[in-house]
């Protein structure tokens, strides 16, 4: 999963059935100092109520249960990152 | 999903059965200022009636329902991108 | 799907059952001017009778029907690319 | 699978059901000299009891049995790497 | 599939059930002149009896039959590469 920051959202009325009713978050991957990496932005379906500036986990190598998750999804809101590289 | 711009289309008469009848869009990923990124172009099956210069969402890590989607697909037309990085 | 050019083929007698009888094409991704990109080469199973120097589509984010496609596959031969970036 | 080092962990109370009870490890890909590569960090579900500074294998191109593995996962602890490039 | 060279192997006693009994090969992607690319190394399950310095094909975008293949796998040993870029 990628460690990312919610930096916005997108509005799309014309979309496939699977995305109907989904909140589409704009997320940017974080570097080793947890700063957004330029031009590493995706759009992910929210599944945990994440909001602007939250640090989140997004499953980009789609591995989740396909019946519940219709596309790349935000799957956790992160409280703490412990790093000891 | 990637945020991309429709920059053209391709014509292919000889193609696998799954792509028969599909409209094949040329899409380029957008950077943080929503400008096309050089050499980041894919071909995606249209599923929402997207046209030239539309801003779209494309599911590149194929997570969509495999019965309905046969390859990388354009799954939404984006009206607005709200970014507060 | 990636827009690529057939630049050769590989011969492999010792291979998994799924690849038996497959024609294994060497394909290189194309840049925005449709020139091969250095060191962006893959090997894909041919499924449409593509030949040397053909411009093709290859499904690298495997989304096609897994019963018919056993690995990354060439799924179309492209006649024309219309680009208006 | 990627060869990586456990460099920490993350804490996330608000998360999807599939991740409940999982230990979320912060892992960084290793270069040819087995040193961490900058900004190549992911979060993976532990499935083998890996700990801080362990060298591990993580399945990023999700291929494992989807019923048992819910996201990118650490699937082995590596004792030895034999390289003769 | 990626064109790679076997540059070693890893030993891991603590591993998930799916990898038990597997031979874990260290493989490095090859460039256009068929030389190893720095820091483009993965670990793949051998399924064709490949050995040190063999040129192989590895399916990284997991497209193979999930019942037989548990992770990124070496699926062919290459005798010849014909390139006419």
TrEMBL record, chains A, B, C, D, E:
A GO cellular component annotation here is: bacterial microcompartment
Q: Which InterPro entries match?
A: EutN_CcmL (IPR004992), EutN_CcmL_sf (IPR036677)
- PROSITE patterns according to UniProt: BMV
Q: Which Pfam families match?
A: EutN_CcmL
Q: Which UniProt keywords apply?
A: Bacterial microcompartment
| Domain of life, per lineage | Bacteria
Its localization reads: Bacterial microcompartment
Q: Does the keyword Flavoprotein apply?
A: no
UniProt record similarity statement: Belongs to the CcmL/EutN family.
Q: What is this protein called?
A: Carbon dioxide concentrating mechanism protein CcmL
């Amino acid at each position: 999963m990628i460690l990312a920051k919610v930096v916005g959202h997108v509005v799309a009325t014309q979309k496939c059935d699977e995305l109907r009713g989904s909140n589409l978050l704009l997320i940017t991957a974080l570097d080793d100092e947890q700063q957004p990496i330029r031009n590493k932005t995706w759009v992910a379906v929210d599944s945990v109520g994440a909001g602007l500036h939250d640090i989140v986990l997004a499953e980009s190598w789609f591995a989740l249960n396909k019946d519940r998750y219709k596309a790349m999804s935000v799957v956790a809101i992160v409280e703490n990152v412990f790093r000891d590289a």
